[in-house]
Amino acid sequence: MSERLADWTKGEAAITYQACTACGHVQYFHRAFCAACGESDPREQRASGKGRVYATSLVCRAATPAHVPYNILLVDCAEGFRMMAHGENDLAIGDSVIASFKPFAGKLVPFFAKTK
């Protein structure tokens, strides 16, 4: 497997995904193979950060009051994969969104806001 691009999981303000060079399948979770066809070493790319809210859940109870409320989203990204992330509390299913990055619990995480 080739060297991975740095993304938010490594502290950089970016989202990466993989695309299979054999069948075109797009996947968010990094693997050494394509989950659709099994081809090895899918190509890694940076995402645009654009997407649409698929589902949303506003969390009003947490271990520490400093973190509530916060919104957890499933976002259908423009490149064809779905990811879970934090977002503005007023987001609704179907909203068009764009990612930025904010610190949360000591880590840099994707944070989606409505597209202006």
UniProtKB/TrEMBL annotation:
Signal peptide: none annotated. Transmembrane segments: none annotated. Residues 15-41 form the ChsH2 rubredoxin-like zinc ribbon domain. Keywords: DNA-binding. It comes from the Bacteria. It comes from Bradyrhizobium yuanmingense. GO terms for molecular function: DNA binding. InterPro entries: ChsH2_C, ChsH2_Znr, NA-bd_OB-fold, Thioester_dehydratase-like. Residues 45-101 form the ChsH2 C-terminal OB-fold domain. This is DNA-binding protein.
